[in-house]
From TrEMBL, chains A, B:
It comes from Esox lucius. Pathway: Protein modification; peptidyl-diphthamide biosynthesis. Coiled coil: none annotated. GO terms for biological process: methylation; protein histidyl modification to diphthamide. The keyword Transferase applies. Pfam families: TP_methylase. This is diphthine methyl ester synthase. Transmembrane segments: none annotated.
Length: 261, 261
């Protein structure tokens, strides 16, 4: 039997009683090492379970699945996953390989962020599609998550934003903070403030919503534009009145492909 | 401390190790008795936990919250919930009462259907709004779940349909089956089959998709209409060619209010 066992979200004791009993009796115990982190490390888990854990990173699961499945038809092998086994990464590939090899499998569920998020008081029923917000780089600023959030809001739904990992091969993972994610979201909303239009001292300032929140455009009358899709020519124009040189960095990477000029 | 402890989805051993330790040490242990069921009953839980459990039905949680909270500022009280504590019913009311009474609370998460459903192989990321399908009666046939499913499908999202409880006060609960829910979904899709229109032996049959699937309209040519919103007059007309007398029972209750005649 191949057991997929969820470890929950906190520490070693968040495994279920059933899961712990199975871990203690399996011939080999793998620990999935790539989708999420507990507050404790492998050593603490090994000590609490009283078992040696074999770290299984993405490469191993994809390329050495046969090794993981070895002997699982005649003995028990456990595959431990932080959260629920079918939360973030579904292990469909490993399941299908097991089934094809005539090996039975069983899932021991546990909490994952997809349901535990209900602790904040928002109804799980009212969540739409979950999105992932990834780290932006100077040249890669994907914004598809924004459109999904907008779709959800249009339907009156909440959106759970899973915050990105920035791991590159052979680098330790880095985890996005709520502050970083909020900053990226703020940068997406490009606005234009206008004051005293037509007067000699008219002022136009383009920037993110947060930039404009601290921008003094002087006496009345003021107007504010919240931009939608932007034509590349519009972007060029807005740059003329950008609050700061990099104020419009957040402009949508898809712009030039959205419009044909 | 007031502990909200998730029990998971299966049997007594699906509680987490942490949850079990807390249950054993609390001065009183309540078992929420109204949102879901385990495969085992209260007796089996009491035996495994080694603790007496106080059943807390909806009335008690709403009307005797003070009794549940009694002494939780100086000792520990546990409130057990099948699945995750913030899965189906959020216990926001109880949380707020505790906080207002100066009682600290803590949540011990566990699996619930909202995340465990990932075991079927569909990505949790790709689920839209969750819907509830309730038992229809002769006079009450709500279909709002259909519109939500459609919205999700329009966005390319899967829809988890939680199947209704039919409990009335002082009656044992009954639980909707997949078969019953599928039947209700099938009844919603009213279609019209037409054969040899204009010929002497033309045939028109209106019914649910499943009825038309077993309906022989004879020789060619055939056409099929999948209906959208129906005007009350259209409904009257379709009844003339209904496959069976009750074929159009499933027609949308909202029809007469959707249109003004």
């Amino acid at each position: 039997m191949l057991y997929f066992i969820g470890l929950g979200l906190g520490d070693a004791k968040d495994i279920t009683v059933k899961g712990l009993e199975i871990v203690k009796q399996c011939s080999r115990v793998y620990l999935e090492a790539y989708t999420s982190i507990l507050t404790v490390g492998k050593d603490a888990l090994e000590e609490y379970y009283g078992r040696e854990l074999i770290l299984a990173d993405r490469d191993m699961v994809e390329q050495e699945a046969d090794e993981i499945l070895r002997g699982a038809d005649i003995s028990d092998v456990a595959f431990l996953v932080v959260g629920d086994p079918f939360g973030a990464t579904t292990h469909s590939d490993l399941v299908l390989r097991a089934v094809n090899a005539g090996i039975q499998y069983r899932v021991i569920h546990n909490a994952s962020i997809m349901n535990a998020v209900g602790c904040c008081g928002l109804q799980l029923y009212n969540f739409g599609e979950t999105v992932s917000i990834v780290f932006w780089t100077d040249t890669w600023r994907p914004e598809s998550f924004y459109d999904k959030i907008k779709k959800n809001r249009d339907l009156g739904m909440h959106t759970l934003c899973l915050l990105g990992e920035g791991r590159k091969v052979y680098e330790p993972p880095r985890y996005m903070t709520v502050s970083q994610a909020s900053g990226q979201l703020l940068e997406i909303t490009i606005c234009v403030g206008l004051a005293r239009v037509g007067a000699e001292d008219q002022a136009i300032r383009a920037g993110t919503l947060s930039q404009l929140a601290t921008c003094d455009l002087g006496g009345p009358l003021h107007s504010l534009i919240v931009t939608g899709n932007l034509h590349p020519l519009e972007v060029d124009m807005l740059r003329l009145s950008a609050v700061t040189a990099d104020a419009l960095q957040g402009l949508r990477a898809a712009d030039s492909s959205t419009y044909t000029s």
